Description:
The protein has helices spanning 14-25, 36-56, 69-83, 99-110, 128-134, 157-167, 186-189, 239-254, 256-274, 301-310, 328-333, 337-341, 354-370, and strands at residues 2-3, 63-66, 90-94, 114-118, 139-143, 172-176, 193-197, 208-212, 280-282, 291-296, 313-314, 343-347. It is an alpha/beta fold and 375 residues long. The strands form three sheets. It has a seven-stranded mixed sheet, with helices on both faces. The longest helix has 21 residues, at 36-56.
Amino acid sequence: MIYLDHAATTPVPREVAQAMYEVLTEQYGNPSSQYPMGVEMKKRLAAWRASVAAAMDCPAEGLVFTSCGTEGDNWALRAAAWQNRHLGKHIVTTAVEHSAVLETCKQLEQEGYEVTYLAPDQGGLITAQQVLEAVRPDTAAVSVMLVNNELGTVYPIRDIAQGLPRRNPKTLLHTDAVQGLTAFSARDLGADLISVSAHKIGGPKGVGALYLGPRVKRPRPLLAGGGQENGLRSGTEATAQMAGFAKAAELRMASLERDRAHLADLRAYAQERLLAIPDMVPVGQGTAPHVLSLSLAGWPSQNIVNDLGAQGICISAGSACHQGKPSHVVAALKLPKRVAAGVIRLSFGPGTTREEIDACAQALQQHHDQRMPML
């Protein structure tokens, strides 16, 4: 199998699985228990939090474990709305956010909030000025993702954070950094709330984290109960997943610069190889080194994905969360119909090779030559 869909999820390294296995089979105590095994697990939980916080370059005390990026996005928006409930009921976001943000915004609209959805240009870009100009005296929150999961576009979170106090010093800034974990420093980025997920960096599914910056007052607990996660998210901690998250973060940080160079080289190589195929065109102006969005214009993307999948080559027609439905991200670009219909996404990991890119390019060339365009 050739796996070129790392933006959807990533394989778990053996070291990560081993760390989880140890917790599941040997160190399985409840961190809330008072006997030695429980006390030991409480210490380990603190160490795991510190490892993830180090990867994000944020204080460990500001990091809350969650079940996934979606949970973090939901919680962040609602925490910001709650903190600024007396300021106003206006939220600024973009039309190309992850569904976890957009669907939460729709819920808030049903609760009386007004949401401004900023449209990107045809390259998928949104400027800091565009965001800041949309902020009003009653804007409770701004939510702009760090890296778009379909296009690889990187948004100017740092510039937004620096300009926001001049527009409205009380407005809180959230960024979904799921596709950018280990590629940013929370201290430098300046966002008030940052949501991340383990399974995008070689960790297990079922665990993520939400960073709460110093401007975030203590939010309402996400879950009521036994008071875990400093009283903010009750429920017995998913210790095996947290152990896996920490180990994955440690591994990624240990090879960070090498991996970045490798991914950038792969992306450039893949773009050169695939754009040599007739009717293949670039989509967006993404610069993230692990995501490449293209279109085989006129050939429906789902047919391409199915054809390559039958050959053991895994690519995507967009976000895995859309499950074959048209992508709101592609729609927001207002591309010509033939181009929009053929959008595919390749996304890479540290173990991806040029030989795998070559095999994918050959399969796409054959699809072009052997199948008739439908548009």
